[in-house]
Amino acid sequence: xxxxxxxxxxxxxxxxxxxxxxxxxxxxxxxxxxxxxxxxxxxxxxxxxxxxxxxxxxxxxxxxxxxxxxxxxxxxxxxxxxxxxxxxxxxxxxxxxxxxxxxxxxxxxxxxxxxxxxxxxxxxxxxxxxxxxxxxxxxxxxxxxxxxxxxxxxxxxxxxxxxxxxxxxxxxxxxxxxxxxxxxxxxxxxxxxxxxxxxxxxxxxxxxxxxxxxxxxxxxxxxxxxxxxxxxxxxxxxxxxxxxxxxxxxxxxxxxxxxxxxxxxxxxxxxxxxxxxxxxxxxxxxxxxxxx
Length: 292
Ligand SMILES: Nc1ncnc2c1ncn2[C@@H]1O[C@H](COP(=O)(O)OP(=O)(O)OP(=O)(O)O)[C@@H](O)[C@H]1O
Ligand SMILES: [Mg+2]
Description:
- By secondary structure, this protein is of the alpha/beta class.
- The chain has 2 domains: 9-30 and 226-286, no CATH class; 35-79 and 90-207, Rossmann fold (3-Layer(aba) Sandwich).
- The protein has helices spanning 9-12, 19-27, 35-49, 69-79, 106-116, 127-140, 159-176, 187-193, 196-201, 214-225, 237-246, 251-267, 275-280, 284-291, and strands spanning 58-63, 83-84, 91-92, 95-99, 145-149, 179-184, 202-207.
- The strands form 2 sheets. It has a 5-stranded parallel sheet, with helices on both faces.
- The radius of gyration is 22 Å and the shape is elongated.
- The two termini are 42 Å apart.
- The structure holds adenosine-5'-triphosphate and magnesium ion.
- Adenosine-5'-triphosphate binds next to helix 4 and helix 12.
């Protein structure tokens, strides 16, 4: 029996599973906690715990595509799931999250909020009907945090359309006395700047691309501990530098490179990731052309 002290509990529990089970686990979505992500989650938790207020605090999270913004929202939601009161049968939904579509409209947003609450949407309802029903349901469910992902999609609309949606977001937050969380790529900042009152309410967190520092070291360590391979993988600072370069410092790419190398390590029975593996890693497309 191998003592997998180099692994996080979830990965350690899989260590004696057959190869195909471990490979499937590596390919499945999983949450990995690391310093930066935990700090953002603490901030989000504080919003959820904030008592209802006429000027609720809010947060904007900006970062390049693949920096893990949506993963943060999903983890935040999992940590604060809906609860049904056994006596009254009333449902409390602490966090309601929707993703803005390209050129969002008020109708569309009310429809998305209703669907997120599991309510039906009547296509023929007037805007006012939709508004009244949504507000009633949101208040009944005691929503504490409203999350809007992909806020940069606002920019596809003209300035008037953008203002309408930003005002709607502010209105929802005011009426519910709930916090707003907006996420998007850096352009989202320009979109939110279109409503000064809203942008003043939102603190900002930027998720920059990784560079080789202590924080990156800790992040890579956390990803490695989440991979169910039998031997510890110690990367030197040169290996880390190379990994930062080939991943362009993007979280999603660090995950996909290390996942791919872990799967290769299982198949090759080496069961560890080395500096040399990182040095010789090639994107899948390049690998194909090499053998063409
Ligand atoms: N904390 C994490 N734990 C595990 N995997 C993660 C984590 N953060 C990011 N990833 C990986 O990175 C991928 C991209 O993350 P995510 O979709 O959250 O990025 P994003 O910032 O929302 O990108 P986009 O702006 O394109 O929507 C995920 O599918 C996952 O594979
Ligand atoms: Mg996303």
